[in-house]
Amino acid sequence: MRLGLYLNLYDSPEGSGAGRSLMSDAVEQARLAEQVGFEWIVLGERHLHRPGYHEILTSLTWLAAHTDRIGIATAGIVAPLYQPVVLAETLAHLDVLSGGRLTAGFVLGYRPEEFALYGVTQAERVARFEECLTILTRLWTEDEVSHDGKFTSIHEAFLSPRPLQNPRPRLWNGGRVSAMLERTARMCDGWTTSFNELDADLPAKIAEYRSYPRGEGTLGAEVILCREGFCAPTSQAARQSLEAPLRDLYDAYTGWKRTSADASRYTQGWDDIAARSVIGSPAECAERLQHYEELGADGIILRIQPPGMPQADVLKSIEAFGEIIRP
What is the spatial distance between Cα 302 and Cα 229, in angstroms, rounded to a whole number? Predict the structure, then answer.
C-alpha cells in the first residue's frame, strides 16, 4: 500500500516566529517520511484562517527543495480561484525543479469567504474548474494552445519549459458527489476522498467512479483515500496522543464547513472517527491498511498531526507506519 503524509501547515497564534518553526517541523517530517518509505508528502489549501495557514505552492516548492525522492502532491488546490495559465506554468516549473515528482490534486472548494476573497462567484466554480483543468492539461501536453473560453482566452500560447514528466504529472480530484466522480473520470487520473468518507460508502463510490468513461488522455483511475492516521505502541496510547488535538481541529471544521453537507461528521464521537481512520497499534494499523486495500484503494493519505500535537509524537508515528510498509 502506498502511503502519503498530509503535512500540517497551520500556524500558531504566536505568529511569524512560530511559522518558521512550523516549516522546519514540516521539513523534518517530510524527510523522515521519505526515509521510511512513504510515497508522497501532501499539502492542502486554506485561506482566511485566522491563526495562519501557509500558502500551498510556495510551501510545496520549499519542501521539494529539502527532499530528494519522495513525491510531492496537493489534495488539493482550489482550482476555480486560479488564473489557469499562471497555475499551469507554476506547477510545470515545480515539476521541473523537483525532478519530476509532482502530483497535482484539485478540489472545487466550498467556503463562500474564499471565493469572495478572490473575486470569484461561487455559482461559477464548476465551469471555472473545468476550464482551468482543460487549459492546464493542454498547456502541459501541446506545443501550442489556443482556447476561447468563458473566463480565459489564449492564442498560440505555450509553456517553456513544460513539466518534466511525460506525458505530464498526474492529476487528482477530490470530492464526494456523483457529478464530481464523473468529472474526475473524464478529466483526471485519480480520485481523492474526503477524510470523513464513511467506510460503508466506499465500495459503491469506488465502483461508481470506475464505471464512468475515462476521458481522452487520462492516465488511469486511481483511488486515493484520505484518512486520519496515528500509530502508537497500543491503541490506548494512540487515542491519548490524538484525541484532544483532533477534537480541536474538528470543532474548527464545524464552523468552516457550515455550508457543506458533511458538516455533521465533525461533531461525531471518537468511535465514529476511529471507524473511518487508521489509528491504533502497529497490528491494528496494518489491519486497517489491508482493509482499505481490499476495498480497492491504490493509496492512502494519512493526516497524522492536527494542530497542537507535539512534533516528537508525529515523528514516532511516521516511523511506526514506516515499519508497517517497509516489508
Answer: 5
**Closest listed residue to residue 218, CA positions, set 179, 281, 171:** 171
| Block residue for cell numbers 510545470 | 92
**Cα distance between residue 319 and residue 324, in whole Å:** 9
Per-position DSSP letters for 238-276, written without gaps between them: HHHHHHHHHHHHHHHHHHHTTTSTTGGGGG--HHHHHTT
Residue with cell 484518512: 227
What 3-state class would DSSP assign to 61? Answer: helix
Q: What is the CATH number of the domain that holds 204?
A: 3.20.20.30
Task: Please state, in angstroms and as integers, the Cα–Cα distance from residue 101 to each residue in 34, 42, 137, following that order.
Answer: 12, 12, 17
Report pLDDT digits (tens) over 290-316. 999 999 999 999 999 998 899 999 999
Closest C-alpha to 255, from 247, 245, 263:
263
Determine the structural domain holding residue 248 and report its residue range. 2-325
Residue 260 confidence class, pLDDT cut points 50, 70, 90: low
pTM for this prediction? 0.92
